[in-house]
Design brief:
about 35% helix, single chain, alpha+beta, about 30% strand, Alpha-Beta Plaits, Dimeric_a/b-barrel, four-stranded antiparallel sheet, Antibiotic biosynthesis monooxygenase
Amino acid sequence: MATKALLVRLEAKPGKEGAVEEFLLSALPLVEQEPGTKPWLAVRFGPSTFGIIDAFPDESARETHLGGPVGKALADKADELFASPPDITKLDVLANKL
């Protein structure tokens, strides 16, 4: 059962919406290698607002994900792609159906 989650909001710089979408699509193979990350969703909230929603069985898996390849790539690309730093919210999961 997932007990921890993340909601990451990303606001693309003007003209970088396509690059943000490509970045998120390219992250999927990296996340597929993380056994503790289930589910992982890349979403679009609006024309320039994107997000990542993911869940984990425990705090250790969440921290492993944050320090992993996707977290590092997000930090590396932040200045290039995003109008503001990624807004990362840590959540506690109360109930789920996965």
